[in-house]
Amino acid sequence: MTPAARTQAAIELLDAIIAAAREGGAAADTLIARYFAARRYAGSKDRRAVRELVYAAIRSCGEAPASGRAAMCLLARADEQLAATFDGSAHGPAPLSTDEPVAVPGTVPGWIGEALERAGIGPDEWPALIERAPLDVRLRKDVGHAEVLAHWPDAQVIPGLPQGLRLPSGTDVASMAGAVEVQDAGSQAVSLAAAASAGMTVVDLCAGAGGKTLALGDAMGGEGRIVACDVDRARLSRLAPRAARAGLSIVETRLLNPNRELEALADLQRTADVVFVDAPCSGTGTWRRNPEARWRLTPDRLARLTATQAHVLEVAETLVRPGGALVYVVCSLLDEEGSNQVDAFLRGHAGWSAAPIDLPLGAALGNGHRLTPARDGTDGFFVARLLAPC
Ligand SMILES: C[S@@+](CC[C@H](N)C(=O)[O-])C[C@H]1O[C@@H](n2cnc3c(N)ncnc32)[C@H](O)[C@@H]1O
């Protein structure tokens, strides 16, 4: 592809990403993969270059731009070489004109910025929310650091995380499949808040494809029982093969019906030592991976998410044994989804209490603990550990 054709491809992709954000369509990564699956003539250098342009444009615009071209015009303003690719050639974009719309530069949408500030995340922290995330892996408990460091001498130990390593971006993780799982340091840290150990019964209520289920199972040394649940059949179906690859035979999966979750959980009422709730959320803590997600969130969507979080907490409450723990996690930095949810739960459930959380990363916040990209170099999370009355 010529440089001009790459710019045109980025514009087309951005148009698709903007529309998907508006209409609840697929994530940018998926759209990029689909785009190139249909254009086999594009080589790996073309794909990389276009991808970089697309993500640079997404990161530059706090609010969704009017069009892919407006977003690329914004980048072209600061980059003469890029501006020169608007050359009107056969596969390239039309020449730039002085009066065409240019996207407004920004970091976060205005209303989310206000919510972040209410949660104590000021503008100085916002750039870190959309920086590129590092490549973190979690070593299986029975795999020694020495073995992995011999394979990847440039890997760095993540302070405080006994099983965490940070790898140079682009490291071929598949070459150590089975020994390591790709997992952000923040995800590893919040999984530790479950304090899962051998022999426990753990319900992972919102298990998805099982990223944290595997960490919980590893912490249990493969002894005990994990019931991994979700309402999303496709996500949950990816969990069993991952658990098998990780050598975990203690994981069983249960598909739940939204709003009728308890029907499939009747046998587990008041039995779990730990119920882990990695609740659906806005993902404001994971914009480093999906920066276009900040174009998707609306006040209505946030209200629906907080209602689901409160509902899932009610379901979880019925599963915890007397004296057991409910661990609530969101990869969000907004108090509406984190601290406020936990406060409301505690107000509504007499006898429950919040336990202090001792994690190597993050800091206490209200009745829980928060990790932020700017301070901790991880995805953003809120986690609370709530204890049932005995
Ligand atoms: C943050 S994701 C979970 C990520 C997963 N724990 C991991 O570590 O990869 C939240 C999950 O909650 C699920 N979910 C949404 N509503 C639910 C409900 N009512 N009961 C159980 N799971 C639900 C979603 O399908 C989604 O997979």
3D architecture notes:
The chain is α/β, with parallel strands linked by helices and 390 residues long. The protein has three domains: 3-106; 134-183; 193-387, 3-Layer(aba) Sandwich (Rossmann fold). The protein is 38% helix and 16% strand. It contains 16 helices and 13 strands. The strands form two sheets. Strands 5, 6, 7, 8, 9, 10, 11, 12 and 13 form a nine-stranded mixed β-sheet that branches. Helix 1 crosses helix 2, helix 1 packs across helix 4 and helix 9 (185-192) packs across helix 10. The longest helix has 21 residues, at 3-23. The chain is globular. The chain binds S-adenosylmethionine. Residues 205-209, 211-212, 229-232, 235, 256, 258, 261, 278, 280, 308, 312 line the site of S-adenosylmethionine (SAM). One of its GO terms (biological process) is methylation. Residues 102-389 form the SAM-dependent MTase RsmB/NOP-type domain. It comes from Sphingomonas olei.
In short:
The protein is α/β, with parallel strands linked by helices and 390 residues long. The chain has helices at residues 3-23, 28-37, 44-60, 68-77, 80-84, 110-118, 126-129, 145-151, 185-192, 211-219, 233-237, 239-245, 293-296, 299-317, 339-348, 373-376; strands at residues 135-139, 156-157, 164-167, 180-182, 201-204, 225-230, 251-255, 272-278, 320-330, 353-355, 363-365, 368-371, 381-387. Strands 5, 6, 7, 8, 9, 10, 11, 12 and 13 form a nine-stranded mixed β-sheet that branches. It has a four-stranded antiparallel β-sheet with strand order 2-3-1-4, covered by helices on one side.
